[in-house]
Structure formats: C-alpha cells, structure tokens
Amino acid sequence: RVMAEPHIVLRTSRLAKCVGERFASRCIDAVMAGVSFTQIDVLDEARRMGMPWDEAVGFDHSSALSLDMLSRDAMLEGATFMINDEVRERINIADMAFSVDRVVSRLSECMTLRIGDLIYLGAPEQFEVKIGDNYKVAIGDKVLLNFDIK
Q1: To bridge 101 with a disulfide, which of 24, 61, 125, 134 should be the other Cys (CB 3.0-4.6 Å)?
Q2: Residues 6 or more apart in contact with residue 90 via CB below 8 angstroms
Q3: Considering only CA atoms, which of 63, 48, 50 is closest in space to residue 4?
Q4: What is the pTM of this model?
C-alpha cells in the first residue's frame, strides 16, 4: 500500500546555520511543487519492530519534484493537488501549524542548510496511490507537476 502526500517545496539560496525567524525569508529563493510517496505497510512494520523508516520513505521514485520554480512569494497563493483533474486538497501556507520562517529557522538550528537544499513543507493529507491516476500540483494558477502513476 502506497500513499501520496503533496507538498510545497522550498529551495534554499544560502548557507544557513542558526538563522533567526526574522531573517529566515532571506534563505529561500524559490518554491516548487512536490509529491512524496510512503509505503505504509513497510512503515508500519518498521515502527512495530523499532527500526528506521528509510525503506518506507526512501525507495526509488519515492518523490516527485517540479523542474519549474517560482518566486518565494508564489507560495502565498497556496497549492492545489488534483487527482484525475479533481481537486483533492488545497494547501494554504497560512493554515500550517508553523510559519515557513519558523520551519526554516528551526531546521537551521538542527542542521546546516546549504545552497540548493530542498525543504518539503508538511502535507495535511495522504492519498492512496492507484495505478492509472493522473496527479497535478499547481502553485497559484501554474501547474508545476503533471504525471501519471504507472
């Protein structure tokens, strides 16, 4: 069983270590659309055995990322996730548990962010993956990802 999670993805533009929230916006230069995939049965087994989750979330083709990038401000318009042209989820930055600046600041405390690092912002929902489905992710009115599940 595989589940998909749509994301707004941030690209870092500079080296960042212990960046305060008020300066975090300076560390992001672009946003992209992403979808991550998780093998739920493998994840459940790893959790049950107290093992790492790597195999459940880090397999071949476990993530899709748009090639096109938009300016940082584009994320304020939010993202739309569609399956077979039906809107399944709208991701609004303002509805997230933590602000983007808080996420970037906190991550920079845990690890050094490097130029070009990608930050997949949390996804509110998961969707069961079915062969033959078409996925689209748009930020604002621009479709950045459009692919079929095979």
Answers
A1: 24
A2: 78, 79, 80, 81
A3: 63
A4: 0.90
